[in-house]
Specification:
With 250 residues, this protein is of the alpha/beta class. It has nine helices and eleven strands. It has a domain of 163 residues: Rossmann fold (3-Layer(aba) Sandwich). Bound molecules: S-adenosylmethionine. The site of S-adenosylmethionine has 20 residues, from helix 4.
Length: 250
Amino acid sequence: MTAIPLRLSAELTADYCQYLQQQFGLTTTTAPAGWYLCMQQGALVLLNADLPKQGAILVDFASGASNYRRQHGGGKSEAIAKAVGLNKKSNISVLDATAGLGRDAFVLASLGAAVTLVERNPAVAALLADGLRRAAADPMLSSVADRMQLRHCPALQALQNSTAVDVVFLDPMFPAREKSAQVKKEMRAFHDVVGSDDDADSLLAPALQLAQKRVVVKRPGYAGWLADKAPTMAVTGKNNRFDVYVNAAI
Ligand SMILES: C[S@@+](CC[C@H](N)C(=O)[O-])C[C@H]1O[C@@H](n2cnc3c(N)ncnc32)[C@H](O)[C@@H]1O
């Protein structure tokens, strides 16, 4: 895992810098090379000093696709909602064991689920924490943010030390099909910063142990099953497939 430093700047207060260092073990720098985190217009962002056209990567639940989906999306008819069971019941507890930038978790929380977001990568977890901080301060989003809780730890640890949850959601990295030059910018950043999730198969058995109702695994349409285990059913979305392993009815 590549260590991503935090760039010191006037916009980064000493208190917030100390919080990020303590919570996520980030180191600091004044002259970054390659990927680094820094504060930009009130938000923690991921930038690359060698790729000026890359643009800032951040968790922003208030704009763009996330909020559009919250306001105009398919709601309970979205494939992810059907896969998790939110079309039947809204107050479901979900452990999202591979939270990433929290987009799926935000959709689930917008539909009423209480979501624990587990992320092991320190830089990604710091971006998530910052996105949740801003969402909690936004009157339009605070009720959704209240249903989202971050845990910065490996998924295995969370799966083995968690109170019962209805659903475990897994979305490990999957090798992109496109040639690297065509891979979207954010995906390239993720592949650089996070790498590949080689232990993904090992998460299915503990997830099935913990989930009271079901485990949902998000996969690209062309990908095989996680741990080669056939699901009970699959829900096919526009860009992805959700493999559903049912333990009990929702
Ligand atoms: C494809 S991304 C998830 C994207 C996410 N579903 C979203 O909507 O933004 C996978 C993420 O899972 C994290 N991850 C993978 N394996 C993990 C593990 N064993 N424990 C904790 N986090 C893990 C990676 O660091 C990465 O950030």
